[in-house]
Every structure is written in C-alpha cells, then in structure tokens.
Design goal:
With 110 residues, the chain is mostly helical. The protein has a single domain, classed as lambda repressor-like DNA-binding domains (434 Repressor (Amino-terminal Domain)). The protein has 5 helices and no strands. It is elongated.
Length: 110
C-alpha cells in the first residue's frame, strides 16, 4: 500500500542525473521504503533524497555510495555517478561560454 503523497513523474532520459534519480527511486520503491526510512538508514534528509531522485540538486559521491549500500544496489548507482559529474561540468562550461559571448552593456550600468 502506498504511503504519503503520490510521487512526481520522472523522466530518466532527461539527463544523467535524472537517470540516477530514477534508479534510486525505483530501488527504494521496490524495497517498499519511504524517503524517511531511507533517510534514517543513510543519514541524509528525506528532502535531500527526494531532490536527488528528482534531479533538482547535485548529489555527492558520498551520498550515492551511501544510497547504493542501503539499497543493496551492488555498485550500480555508483557506476551511474561519473556521467552525472561529467554532465554537470559540461553544463557549467556551456553557461560560462554563453556569458563570455554575451554582448556587454555600453550604457555605463554594471
């Protein structure tokens, strides 16, 4: 029986972070664990876990390793993490390049 609010839909094909988040949620739900129960097992807040599942905020390698162990994922989650890091670095570089190419204001306002 489901507990709590209905889960927000995930699109695992949206990004590497979304793929990792979907895998975390799938494994958590398969084990019938709530966010709070997983939170108690790994020492991270339910909100942090939820944001990782929804790919809202970046997660750390330590977080992914803790979730991997708690969900008996056998390293599967850990193997997804490097793609998240690379994707995040690529996004930062794209934003930095766009800022460098943006026209500069000539009206004296900074």
């Amino acid at each position: 029986m489901a507990r709590g609010r209905p889960s927000k839909a995930l699109d695992p094909d949206a990004s590497s972070a979304a793929r990792l988040g979907a895998e975390i949620r799938t494994r958590r739900v398969e084990q019938n664990l709530t966010l709070h129960e997983l939170s108690r097992r790994i020492g991270y807040s339910p909100q942090h876990i939820s944001e990782a599942e929804l790919a809202k905020n970046p997660c750390s390698a330590l977080f992914v390793a803790a979730v991997d162990r708690a969900l008996d994922a056998g390293g599967r989650l850990v193997t997804l993490y490097p793609a998240v890091v690379i994707e995040r670095a690529d996004e930062r570089e794209t934003r930095a390049t766009a800022r460098r190419r943006a026209p500069r204001s000539t009206d004296g306002v900074r």
